[in-house]
Amino acid sequence: DVERSRGLGDVYKRQAEACALSRSHFTRKFKESTLLSPHVWLRQQRVDKAMALLRHSQLSLTQVAMECGFFDQAHFCRVFARSQGMTPLAFKRQQQAQPAELPRVAC
After folding, report:
1. Using one digit for the tens of pLDDT, what is the confidence trace for 22-71?
2. Which end of the chain, N or C, is surrounded by fewer C-beta atoms within 10 Å?
3. Furthest CA-CA distance within the chain
4. 30-66 burial string, b = 16+ CB within 10 Å, else e?
5. Residue 84: predicted pLDDT
6. Distances (CA, A) of 21 to 16, 31, 66, 79, 104
7. How far apart are CA 95 and CA 5, in angstroms?
8. At 15, which helix (H) or strand (E)?
């Protein structure tokens, strides 16, 4: 499972093999297609999932970190803060302080 894997070199190798490409060729084509390296893309996917969990769940930061495939809570907090400009806890508090969006009803 790519999302939970911590051995990214093996993940890239398996993905490359599934596409019948060398790892380096897969990495080049992936970056050409997404404008991100596989590593950066995967990290962003993990942060995006963490943001959704922080918004919509009561999981602890450690639980969110583990659910999103980070090595530990400290690693999660560093990556999240670098990506979002605030800690996961600050993000969660900010989200809780904002009123929930009401569904739009056509009249």
Report:
1. 888 888 888 898 898 888 998 999 999 999 999 999 999 999 999 999 99
2. C
3. 57
4. beeeeeeebeeebbeebbeebbebbeeeeeebeebbb
5. 96
6. 5, 14, 31, 30, 47
7. 29
8. helix 8-18
Token representation of residue 26: 């897969």
Angle, vertex CA 27, rays to CA 22 and CA 31, nearest 5: 150
Angle at the Cα of 17 (from 13 to 18), degrees rounded to 5? 120
Distance from the first to the final alpha carbon of the chain: 46
Alpha-helix runs per DSSP H in 37-102: 38-56, 61-67, 73-84, 88-97
Q: Considering the entire predicted model, what is its pTM?
A: 0.75
Residues 6 or more apart whose Cβ sits within 8 Å of residue 20: none
Q: Distance (Å, rounded) from C-alpha 73 to C-alpha 71?
A: 7
